[in-house]
Design brief:
By secondary structure, the protein is mainly β. It contains four helices and 15 strands. It folds into two domains: about 130 residues, Nucleic acid-binding proteins (OB fold (Dihydrolipoamide Acetyltransferase, E2P), Beta Barrel), CATH 2.40.50.140; about 180 residues, no CATH class.
Amino acid sequence: MTKILKFSLLLGLTGASQWTIAHHSSVGIYDTTRLIEVEGVVTSVLWRNPHPSYTLAVEDEDGETVDWRIEAGSISTLRVMGIGRDFIEVGDRVTLAGEPSMRGRPELFARNILLADGREALLSANSKPFWSEGGAERMYEAGIDAELVERGRQGAMGIFRVWARVPNDTDSWPLYRDDVGGLTEAAERIRAQWDPTQSPYLGCAPKGLPYVMGSAYPLEFVPQGENLLIRLEESDARRVIYMNGATAPSGYSMYGSSTGRWDGNTLIVETENIDTPHFYGDGTPQSRNMRLTEYFTLSESEDRLDYRLIVDDLETFTEIREFTRYWVWRPDLTVEPYNWQE
């Protein structure tokens, strides 16, 4: 017998703040101002990008069984948190906390899951522990594949390795904190016309530079002759950095023309010729005159990479802007094909 559906109270601004950085798939579809709890038995699992989905058989207040459609964070996000295809299986009895449908349907964007053994796991990039009994000792911890770790260690050298965000650490992710702000009047007018329900990112449109550098997904630095390649898992993005005075192609593109140099343990990358419409997925624009300077600083232990982004675009911002984040080395991870599916 399935468990009873339970609704939580409408969250105030303080309680909802941990979810205010809405993922592109939830805007206009799920009510990001509310959280509900749903208890039931898993009856189907569809593991695919951008979001795995599940069906949960839930007994309503009238004793009828209702099939709820559940979405969770992207496969790439879940992998960083140690959650794979077999984490949730048909027949599992679980409780989920998440955002209900705005369309009045039995649908949920799940942020947290409470397993039958009482452990809690996070199901999206910006989730935080939800249940009061879910202290640190009750949080799900994934096992580490020693073979993958050893393989990752063998291929690592300096910056050339796989990097990932630290879950539940806002210094690591997101790159942009809350409202970007500091816009010119012209940029404010453009953003005011933004309709989130018509966002191209609802369909997982690729993000240009610098937006893509705020990704919650893994990335990797790869040597490419005298130059280097930044491989990002999100949208299979590829950035070639032309090193040691080499000339970058001059044409405009969504990732622009990037040249780099080393200053000690810091890779400095300068980029221009960027042609992409959005600085952020809230409709914040950017101009074709934008210039970026990025600093990737490798720690002495080579297990942390600090990132500083300087944005010079006075058509969009009233002053030069700076944003920071960091990644940690994850020898157990690889940058996988994005393989987005409708």
